């Protein structure tokens, strides 16, 4: 409960209310404008929706295996590589993507390619046999192909 | 939109808990609903998420666990409300009237309209949220929404990309909604949860301070938060930072409202419940909960037992997860405490983040400074203990960066902004708690007062 000594009256109280109200309203108008521009410009920059679509057939094609191997063709240590991995992981979850190519216990491997390549040849180098091209640069492999 | 429906059930469950536990110090009129509805969201979503995790760990499949969690939380809340919540009359807030309050309502109306616009636009432009949403929070929700996959949220293979050591309350909120409706990956649920958190945070700050310091102070506090650009940046990012702020602010408000000549034990219990849910939301919540526990123990003494007992269940969940499931990812190491060169770098970065909270002249720090200068501090300054959780949080953040095992610059650039955002509602609340209240001069005709 406020006592008279803990109340502020007159011009000071009105000024406090007016300053905060006017400036906050101005801020919200400005930030909304910035937000609108940013949304138009970048929006869903990582196109997660289309990643989910690209990987839609992977769970069924891999028999919903809890862990599947993954590799992509983005530049090493790049944001693009990390983004591709992370978005692919979201798309296939609850399956977990394994990056360690030495894991011999992982039967299925998914190649995530940005451009047309010799998918079968790439798989052969890693000891993987091409099973199917799932479209949009997503390629399914199985361990056990000849090197 | 069906995927978002379970959130409403959880929200309704939360209302019963809030109405029951705030009954004896219930504000009257519009304040009551403005307070109970936003406070009900974290209580409902958080409580049912905790139950959901427990049921999954007990071996239930996802969908039955989701339905059972919501029904159990709703039933328990309704029973508590039946016992405690119906008996008390509303208490007057005893705050002085201020005939110029319409000024701040006008400002809030403008801000509110643009906030709703930003939420709608954010949901359309970022349907999957920002990076951490699909890399961490919604990803882990997908595990929690799938039969038998809940333990994979802590898979070692996710270290370095998805923070499997993080707590699971927020993924549980989303995962439970997905499991209920069989719609894992439907972005309506996380988008709705993000919007509900953001709106509830603003309303809780408004109504929480209104009940303690009057409508004008409450509205001014909400306006300062709405002048924070970081709030707008993250409002639809679908991160756990705004929900964390909501839990922390709710816990702090309940503790403050519980105080007085005699501590109100149900309100203290609600504070403990919310604080422990904050700890199950993010590790920063753990630091806050510890700080608030200390503050409540210091201020309420033996009455703090109610707080501790209510905090215990979620605290046990956190302990279970950290001890038995979370992978041993070492995000901090005391070895780095010897690197004193980190201190000025961290200080400089936080200063930069504070300055980046807004633009001149609408910067929230300027608005706070103007409020302090024009309203002045209350005399005597009471309830100093309310500053302890905020101080503990700030100290915890500083220590975390100082001991971080990641490259410091990268760590600061990715986390500092969100951390400042987590603290802002608490800081604003605490500042306005210590300020004097705008009032109409004695003798001025107040159109709202009836003449005797």
Q: Descriptors for this entry?
A:
heterodimer, A: 147 residues, alpha/beta, 5-stranded mixed beta sheet, 5 helices, elongated, B: 452 residues, 17 helices, 68% helix, globular, disordered C terminus
If you had to describe this structure to a student in words, what would you say it looks like?
The mean pLDDT of chain A is 91. The N and C termini of chain A lie far apart (80 Å). With 147 residues, chain A is α/β, with parallel strands linked by helices. Helices cover 44% and strands 20% of the residues of chain A. In chain A, helix 2 (48-54) crosses helix 4 (79-92). Chain B is built from 17 helices and 1 strand. In chain B, helix 7 runs parallel beside helix 10 (241-258). Chain B is globular, with a radius of gyration of 21 Å. At the A-B interface, strand 1, helix 1, helix 2, helix 4 and strand 3 of A face helix 4, helix 5, helix 8, helix 9 and helix 15 of B.
List the helices and strands and how they pair.
The complex is a heterodimer of chains A (147) and B (452).
Chain A (H helix, E strand, L loop, with lengths): L6 E2 L1 H32 L6 H7 L3 H4 L5 E6 L6 H14 L3 E3 L9 E5 L6 H7 L2 E8 L2 E6 L4
Parallel strand pairs in A: 2-3, 2-4
Antiparallel strand pairs in A: 4-6, 5-6
Chain B lengths: L4 H17 L7 H29 L4 H24 L15 H25 L5 H14 L24 H13 L6 H26 L1 H12 L2 H6 L6 H18 L6 H15 L3 H18 L3 H22 L16 H14 L8 H12 L11 H16 L5 H27 L2 E2 L14
